[in-house]
Hints:
Elements: H1 2-55, E1 63-75, E2 90-101, H2 105-115, H3 126-146, E3 151-164, E4 167-177, E5 184-193, E6 198-199, H4 202-205, H5 211-222, E7 246-249, E8 252-257, E9 270-275, H6 276-279, H7 285-290
Parallel strand pairs: 2-3
Antiparallel strand pairs: 1-2, 3-4, 4-5, 5-6, 7-8, 8-9
Amino acid sequence: MKKTFISALILTALFTVTGCEDKEAKATIEQQTQTIAQLTAENTQLKAEKEKAEKVIPAIIAQDDVIFDKEETIKYPKSAKKEDEYVPTEGKIHYSISTLKTNIEWLDKLLLEQISKNADGKPRSREQLIEDYQKAYDEAKKEMLESPIMGIDETLDLAFSHQRGKLAVFLINYYSYSGGAHGVGGYHYLNVDLETKKLLSFDDVFKPNQQAKLKELLWERYTRYGEIKDEEAFTSKDAFEVTDNFYLDHDGIHFVYNVYEIASYAEGPQELVIEWWNASALLKPEFLQKQYYPVSSNTAE
């Protein structure tokens, strides 16, 4: 009888312990489930906030980022020969290249790619640029010591022009001097879509086969609507070309021609502007949908 009673007690104790363990396990599982649900909700919220943040168009704050900048004045030995009396006594050498730091990683990378392109159009790394510029600097210095000249200057840098919403405009400035009366410089514009993170090309903006119409519009502005006779223009109409160097602004599309392209050095770079209302019929529907600037139609076309 006692054995039966003890066995019953043992079984009761076991069931009690097992029941307690089940309750504790169940509570633990419920707590873990709640934690997982909470973490999942937080992760979903963070993901949504990240996606929202990525859609926010950043305001461009640009700072110069010098990659290479070196200059010095070279003193030439004085010659006793009379024919060398016009040889300069010193010459200045300067090589520099700089990009921009915007604190927007993908944009900084894109700008560096554009300014670092070599003659083959291939971008170079920052380290390769430093190496190439140092090599060019050393070779130029050696040439100056062998054949004295007034100086050599090779400058390439980036500048921030303006921003309107998702459109940011930058320009590459270049200047080259290797003796003579003056050097030659110019600008190349970059139109960047901050939403798609891409450069806008000529083909992104204009419909196919619009060169002839664009040329007529630009020629009108170049000759000031007939004020300058065709035969008096620096560039003949046959030789006049539609440039792919352009930028977008509030008043229209600016086509930029550097020195000697359609004007003399003294006249400097030239900008010919096709107003938005005049350009609307030539623009791609996809471009118009972007609404970088308000574009009204030319009802007179």
